[in-house]
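Final report, Chapter 2: Outcomes

The project's central promise was a pipeline that accepts a single protein chain and returns its three-dimensional structure in a standardized token representation, suitable for archiving and comparison. That pipeline is now operational. To close this chapter, we reproduce one record exactly as it appears in the project archive, with the input sequence first and the structure output second.
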Amino acid sequence: MAKPVTMPQLGESVTEGTITRWLKAEGDEVEMDEPLAEVDTDKVNAELPSPVAGKIEKFLVTEGSTVDVGTEIALVAVEGDSSATDAPLQENTAADAPTEEFPAAGTEAQPVAQDTERQRAFARADSEGNGRGGIEDAETLRLTRSSPVVRRLAEEHGVEITEIPGTGTGGRVTRKDIEGYIEEQEERGTEREEYEPPGLQEEREAFAEIERVPLYEGDRIEELTGIRRAIANRMSASKREAPHAWTMVEVDVSGLAALREREKAAFAEREGINLTYLPFIVKAVVESLRENPVLNSAWDEDRIILRKRINVGVAVDLEDALIVPVIAGADELNLVGLARRIDDLVRRARGRRLGTEDVSGGTFTVNNPGALGSVVSTPIINHPQAAILSAEAIVKRPVVIDDAIAVRSMMNLEVAFDHRVLDGGAALKFLNAVKHRLEDYGSKE
């Protein structure tokens, strides 16, 4: 029998992938770890290395197909195999948008069988306890781990997710599971009392009446790429799930601007990279997160998880998309180390050369729209993180200092936060800590 190649888990919380291009043809020989296909996920675009060496007997999915992690996508005959396995071509399937689970940074995500995932859930619940019923609650957590779309659909139809066996990765309940369950109940004539939150019926009717946007002469349709669709799903889920609030402070970075101007030439010659404002901002954020750990946390339905590690994601604009590579262990790096790491991540992001380890495990995100000229923005939280900071453009303008008008280099800082996790006072305490650190740069010279 030929050995199957399955869709791997290319990053934490990734539950599906799209085969954008096969790099081999049926009948070709492939070496172990030789690129077999290009795969697009909501995290990265990456080449899929072959897990075995042999002859490609059949591709089980077509280019452009989106399949769940663990789905067999190809058959490879290894040495000693004599016959190909006839397998039907699987049609393109769409899964629900992934729910970010953010396991501990540094863990290597690999595709696992449902039974293995279940055992791990049992082990975690058994060892952690948490007063939640140990193994019994592990089963409940496994079944209820689902995307916001699935939970919303279940709520609309008054369905308990724990009643439904999940067919997704690790027993995840998918939209198809929910829809199939509902259809089965309707066919049996089962009547259910449906709980409908206020306004839900009106919302459903409004959605039912939505029609396509009208097209006019000269209009051009651009189909969504995998990463664009993933961004849309993730941002929509974040706004639905997390009650966003935001606040802003002004920062006088005149000292920092002067310091950078004096040092940037020598820094570039010594380090081989440009000295930007971003490493200073990230350094101030990291030190402020140590003092205000609630900002470095995550919402987990009925509890708040305070992260020990500080892994800062930095938003990078790719023109056609936005990606957030992660500086793992940012609290362990000095200013020069942060500058080097940021430069490396940004270069590889723009060259589409990031690996799954580069976009996993973030605990807090720094957005830098100021590099594009923005002066005020309201960022969307990278759910389930608790907060995100935006650093705006540095602009010279007149300000009042000791009853006198002076021209200073000013920058706005905003933080958007999950109001379930923290309140405005905690957000402003953190934001003012960042402000004071940035204002201290160059002030003592």
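Archive annotation: The radius of gyration is 25 Å.
This record, like all others produced under the grant, will remain available to the consortium after the project formally closes.
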